[in-house]
Amino acid sequence: MFNRNIGAADRTIRVLIGIVLIALVFVGPRTPWGWIGLVPLLTALISWCPLYQLVGLRTCPRGSCKS
């Protein structure tokens, strides 16, 4: 459906950021804004970022970006 545009390092960073943001819902300031962490988690899961698509950015090697 979508061509992958997120590489392995980018996926790892997105997962870590997503987990940290979601943790804010349960610990720390307990803010509902932490649910925004679902966005990087979902984009890491599907290896596709709509913003990257709009600006023409790819963080994966050319040969491995195929779905």
Q: In whole angstroms, how far apart are the ends?
A: 8 Å
Please give the domain count.
1
Residue-averaged pLDDT: 91
Order of helices and strands: HHH
**Rg for CA atoms:** 13 Å
Strand content: under 5%
Total helical elements: 3
Strand-helix topology:
Blueprint: H1 8-26, H2 38-46, H3 50-55
Helix pairs in contact: 1-2
Summary, kept brief:
With 67 residues, this protein is mostly helical.
Task: Report what the structure shows.
Helix 1 runs antiparallel to helix 2 (38-46). The protein is built from 3 helices and no strands. The radius of gyration is 13 Å and the shape is elongated. The protein has one domain (8-60). It has helices at residues 8-26, 38-46, 50-55. It has 67 residues and is mainly alpha-helical.
